[in-house]
Amino acid sequence: MEKHFAIFLLVCLTTLSFSCDYSLENNQDDKLSELTSSKIFSDKFLEFQGDPDFEVINLENVSNFSTLIDRMQTLSCEDKYTGITYQFNDTIYHQYGYVECPTSDVISCFMNRNTIHIKNDSLMNYRASLDSLYPINSLAHQLNTMKHVDYYNSVGEPVLKQILIYLNIEDHYPISKTKEVLAEVEKQFTKANKEKSDNYYRYMIFFEKYSKTDIPLPPPPPELKD
């Protein structure tokens, strides 16, 4: 009898220990889930999310910016749209990105648009200056300098024509720099839109292997002689 009782007690203790460990593990998972429960979806991501040709790249599986570009170009050459997801701090971001297929003979032309070039963590606002760089955390301020409005939404509110952002991150930076910059872009647009109506500022990110900010501006034309 004492032997059977000892076995029974051992089984109970083992079960209790397993249950406590399992409960503790679940609690840790729940806490981790709470820490990363904040999710942000850009308008463009939501627009393409239901498309059968829409594929998402997780930046946790990408080593650097060039590797990301290569994967995006592969999808673009297959006529697919690319979503980007990543975790930065305690938030999971979902954004849309665009690259041109390198073998495509189509040349994109965007006339009369508000254009911003971002290289690493600096930006160039073509509406403000052609030779000045600004910190990326001033993006909301730079957006407010853009006065070119020629589009109205369904309820008659003015909406700025989609802003084109050309993004390049040098490869000596880890992929965490790309996450930081992308998260800051979304943060700055949210900040700027709080001062306007919702979706007043909208953006499209073009991922580039080479930054146009590295290309020197052409010299001014020579003065005409009388």
Order of helices and strands: HEHEHEEEEEHEEEHE
Number of helices: 5
Radius of gyration: 25 Å
Mean pLDDT: 80
3D architecture notes:
This is Lipoprotein. It comes from Flagellimonas lutimaris. The chain is α/β, with parallel strands linked by helices. It has one domain. 35% of the residues lie in helices and 23% in strands. The chain has five helices and eleven strands, in the order αβαβαβββββαβββαβ. It has helices at 2-35, 43-48, 65-77, 139-143, 175-194, and strands spanning 38-41, 54-58, 81-88, 91-98, 115-119, 122-125, 134-135, 151-152, 158-159, 163-168, 203-207. The strands form two sheets. Strands 1, 2, 3, 4, 5, 6, 7, 10 and 11 form a nine-stranded mixed sheet that branches. A two-stranded antiparallel ribbon has the order 8-9. Helix 5 (175-194) links the parallel strand 10 (163-168) and strand 11. Residues 3-36 have low confidence and may be disordered.
Q: What's the helix and strand layout?
A:
Layout: H1 2-35, E1 38-41, H2 43-48, E2 54-58, H3 65-77, E3 81-88, E4 91-98, E5 115-119, E6 122-125, E7 134-135, H4 139-143, E8 151-152, E9 158-159, E10 163-168, H5 175-194, E11 203-207
Parallel strand pairs: 1-4, 2-3, 4-11, 5-10, 10-11
Antiparallel strand pairs: 3-4, 5-6, 6-7, 8-9
